[in-house]
Specification:
Length: about 350
């Protein structure tokens, strides 16, 4: 099976010139604001803290909070992972029924040096996936105002064509080898973890990276077949308003709904309980898994249940403004993406 980095994956706007430039020169150039799925109820056994941080991973914040409040890391909740080289605002939860909210905020601010925007109580732990998405404001440095027409052309094309919902390079580790490590675990050639919490977390991270790589390969092949903008017989589609899944039995009937953004087709996050596509779409999913040399039995033995991931996104409004100051030229991009989607995937269409 060929290994693909994000740079190898096909663009959806290849005919439009890129603007070049770089991102993440400093955390303040990559701002992420988590969009919550719900508001805390104001009472309950869990303290929710809206925290702003930069230069730290979500996991590092979890470890700091656990140490400060003498909690097991599993008692610290969060909705999604955020970039380290970014200025992020996200919510964490602490399983602390007796601690006063004001005291929790004070200790996070004074002892950990993190900015707390608010603190409230809620009945349940904040869990992975408990978010709508993220709002981004990103500076692409090293481009001048003359690049603005190209950026606007790319934005319009993405609004019309949609965006491939690839997993970003962050998913695969700094060296890009997390997916290969996950494959080795599946094949019984790598560490299986154990009772240690960190080992279990790393094992899960690597296995998820392997699943993500297979999804990217499947989506890249679909784009290569010029099927990004059309439904295929047997696709598992998702309703964008309710999230309901259904099998596509007649592609021509569903094509107008795809074009309006009412539905999108989904791709495989391989696992032994994954809902597989049927007919033509199912055959192509099976081919990707077979090319990887992985069996359903190996997925089951590794504990990978699998799921479906939306494969085509309509990014909506993308605000672009040219910026020039004494430190050089740049261009700001502001946009929102649903949970699990990567700003770097959208920005690569502009930067190329």
């Amino acid at each position: 099976m060929d290994r693909l980095s994000l740079h190898d994956l096909p663009l959806i706007t290849p005919e439009i010139f890129g603007i070049g430039g770089t991102i993440k020169e400093e955390p303040s150039h990559f701002v992420v604001d988590e969009l919550p799925l719900y508001e805390p109820q104001g009472k309950g056994a869990h303290i929710y803290l809206r925290i702003e941080r930069d230069g730290m991973t979500t996991r590092e914040v979890v470890q700091l909070l656990a140490k400060e409040f003498a909690l097991h890391p599993n008692d610290v909740g969060y909705a999604g992972l955020k970039d380290k080289e970014a200025r992020c605002t996200q919510t964490f939860s602490l399983a602390m029924p007796s601690l006063a909210e004001a005291e929790a905020a004070r200790r996070v601010g004074e002892s950990l040096g993190l900015t707390v925007h608010w603190v409230k109580r809620h009945a349940n732990k904040l869990k992975r996936g408990h978010l709508l998405g993220n709002r981004f404001k990103v500076l692409v440095s090293g481009v001048g105002p003359e690049a603005l027409p190209c950026a606007q052309a790319v934005a319009q094309a993405l609004i019309e064509r949609g965006l491939p919902n690839y997993f970003g390079d962050q998913r695969f580790g700094m060296a890009g080898d997390n997916a290969e490590a996950g494959r080795r675990i599946l094949k019984g050639k790598g560490a299986r973890g154990g009772r240690d919490h960190r080992n279990k977390w790393l094992r899960s991270l690597m296995l998820n990276a392997f699943q993500s790589e297979l999804f990217n390969i499947w989506l890249a092949e679909r784009i290569g077949r010029r099927e990004f903008a059309r439904m295929v017989m047997g696709d598992i589609a998702k309703k964008t308003d309710t999230g309901g899944l259904f099998e596509v039995e007649e592609p021509s009937n569903e094509q107008p709904r795809l074009e309006k953004g009412e539905i999108t087709y989904t791709g495989p996050i391989y696992g032994h309980k994954m809902r597989s596509a049927k007919a033509e779409a199912g055959s192509r999913e099976a081919e990707v898994l077979a090319s990887a040399g992985v069996s359903q039995e190996e997925l089951k033995r590794a504990g990978l249940k699998g799921s479906r991931r939306p494969a085509r996104l309509l990014p909506g409004d993308i605000q672009i403004s040219a910026k020039s100051d004494g430190e050089g030229d740049g261009m700001w991009f502001a946009f929102a993406l649903p949970k699990g989607s990567y700003a770097t995937v959208l920005l690569r269409e502009f930067i190329k």
